[in-house]
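Input.
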Amino acid sequence: MILSKACEYGLRAALHLAATDPASYVPIRTVSEALGIPYPYLAKIAQTLVQHGILTSSRGAAGGIRLARAADVITLKEIVLAMDGPALFRSCVLGLPGCGDERSCPLHDEWAVVRARIETVLAQTTLAALGERLAAGEGRLGTTV
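Output.
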């Protein structure tokens, strides 16, 4: 896949929070179990998303993680940038350094179109939009088929 495993897990965790009760703190272990994501790995991912202002966390018996802002203002692109940085939107699909309009790889022009479309979709899609679909039973986030 184009996204790192950490980014995939970060997207799934944020969507899970948006689909449940975005105003309530949910224990990381609960999210981990619901999504089939190893707890220690999800804890590190959550820490990154907290640092980027996407999630907020609270310690204690009623603690956990939740969305830092309303789900309708958090885009998938924000999460991708927080987890993977801007490489998806700038890099050569073949991994060639210096690939650009002047010295391009054989897929440069085609990839530029795909890359722009991916960026548009991620920038225009909010957690709320997908969270509503998940809450309505459309789609899944867990690993079970």
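The mean pLDDT is 91.
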